[in-house]
Amino acid sequence: MHLSRWLAAASAALTLAATTALPQSAQARDIVGFSGDYSPGTIVVKTGARSLYYVLGGGKAVRYTVGVGRAGKQWTGTAMIDGKYLQPAWSPPADVKRDKPYLPNLIAGGKGNNPMGAAALTLSRGQYAIHGTNNPGSIGGFVSYGCIRMYNADVLDLYSRVSFGTTVIVTN
User: Fold this and answer.
1) Pairs from 129-136 (Cβ < 8 Å, separation ≥ 24)
2) How far is Cα 152 from Cα 43, in angstroms, rounded to an integer?
3) Residue 109 and residue 88 in contact, taking contact as beta carbons nearer than 8 Å
4) pLDDT score recorded for residue 17
5) CA–CA separation, 42 vs 32, rounded Å?
6) Which single residue of 5, 49, 100, 155 could bond 150 by disulfide (Cβ 3.0 to 4.6 Å)?
7) 48 vs 17, 22, 70, 79, 110, CA distance in Å?
8) What is the C-alpha to C-alpha distance for residues 148 and 79, in angstroms, rounded to an integer?
9) What does the alpha-carbon distance between residue 131 and residue 117 come to, in Å, rounded to a whole number?
10) Local structure of residue 90 (DSSP, 8 states)
11) pLDDT score recorded for residue 27
């Protein structure tokens, strides 16, 4: 009898320790009502709301909280996903390098200081991407040079849903 109580207590303690000691995968996605004339599979980014919507159809979308371009770095318009990368390497674009000349010319994929995080979906508009981040505190803010930042767990979820040529519409 005492052994079974001890085992139950030890099991509970290990479970508690595991859930508090290990980092939890951040996730900021919900299925929400969504209206508009968008085809299922379209990505809609509303920068003012710092939200990205993956349109499911039937008046529903998956909503993700995102970080977006800071003042003077935001853009609007339509693009297409033209690349999908897991653990991508990153080279700072010219405007980032100009503002932060101390950055290396290349940061290998999977490194803790790589701002692309777990995955990147590059956009046909040039230097922009929808990507993960190793700075989860930046999600929900006006923080980037125009890229759309997501929690790593969320960008991996979105990565699994989209394909090359997916339409991305960015609005205020």
Assistant:
1) 130/43, 130/45, 130/52, 130/66, 130/81, 130/155, 130/158, 130/168, 131/88, 131/155, 132/156, 133/67, 136/26
2) 17
3) yes
4) 34
5) 15
6) 155
7) 39, 33, 11, 18, 30
8) 13
9) 7
10) B
11) 63
Q: How far apart are the first and last CA of the chain?
A: 64
How do residues 100-145 score in pLDDT, each as one tens digit?
999 999 999 988 889 999 999 999 977 899 999 999 999 999 999 9
- Assess whether 147 carries a catalytic annotation: yes
Helix (H) or strand (E) holding 85: strand 77-86
Question: From the candidates 61, 139, 147, 155, which is the catalytic residue?
Answer: 147
Classify each residue of 54-78 as buried b or exposed e, where b means 16 or more C-beta atoms within 10 Å of its C-beta.
bbbeeebbbbbbbbbbeeeebeeee
pTM of the model: 0.82
Token reading at 97: 């390098």
pLDDT recorded at residue 11: 39
45 - beta bridge partners?
52, 170
Dihedral of CA 32/53/121/65: which sign?
negative
Task: Decide if 39 is catalytic.
Answer: no
From the list 131, 149, 162, 170, the catalytic residue is 131
Q: Is the pLDDT of residue 19 over 60?
A: no
